[in-house]
Predict the 3D structure of the following.
Amino acid sequence: MTNNIEQKIEARLKKPFFTEMLIMAVSTGSNHTKYIEVVKEWSLFFRKKLEERNLIKKIKHRPKEFWNFKGKKKIYNIDGGQLSLAVPGGATMGIRVGTYKVKPGDYSKETREGFDDSSTLISNLVDRTGHSHYEEDGDFNLDYKKMLEGSRMIMELAEVVKQAEAKGKWNDKPSKNDIIFLHGPIIYQAAMYHLSSDQNSKSPSYKEDFFNKLLQHSPNFQLDIFKNRNKEDEKDLRTFLPIYCELGNYIKNSNVPIYGVVERSVNKSSVVQKAMIGELYQTKTREWLMLKERDFGWSWNTKRVDGSDEGEKVLDIFKQYMLGDPNLFDLIPDEGE
């Protein structure tokens, strides 16, 4: 069994998506060969320790059977990004959102797949009437980066509404038998993108034309503040959080299955690793001590790894090699685990 897993890990390390690990190796100053050796060594080590403690579970996972839709199910993938010139120092010009629609099992060129997209220039986003969005006074404190991120999020939410209402490229509405995958906006916290960092600052309103394009489902509004709005409320409603809540409630109440997707991370995040190492080595981190004060014990009722006190040393190795969660867990579990 061990040799079989070792062979699989070696094969996975040769796959194209592990080039990103080598890129990270360069940033750490590590030798490529040494980097791969360390990754393989620790993957096998943790695989063994998790197996010994019966912490790797097998589920019935048959992707070929699950995805065999015979061309009867439409799948929409919606994702967005920023438009910018490919030159050093080039500022962001706008925001784009793309929709890729595919019918797995349909092999005809005409109906199998298609692409729809929309974009908005930055100059068409914010209503600057009476203000300059470059001003940084107490009345108009705008975090430019958050404004772009927030705008992208609500454009992606609005794209779901547009496709669900058949107001994009295609005339047929998705049904309860179809799927929409939305990357990001209903997974990550919306509150972090709100522009008011303190109670005295003012969030900028979006332009009326941009605002109306977002609300493709009108007059079938979800929230009372949108159903019964008056002119005095108009500018306040054209800000990030009210729009996000309105579009989010449309998605929540939709009959079409809509799933929030977390994209495969390419950064050095190691949140799960730290928790795993803490449990296996029972490393007394600051967070653990805080939980202990509230009578929280270890989550895993398992034997400590080799009875050793090397948890901190292992964490240092992971920091040194920037071995992020996605990379390690792409290697350790087998199919269906």
Remarks:
- The beta strands are 75-84, 92-102, 113-121, 179-183, 258-261.
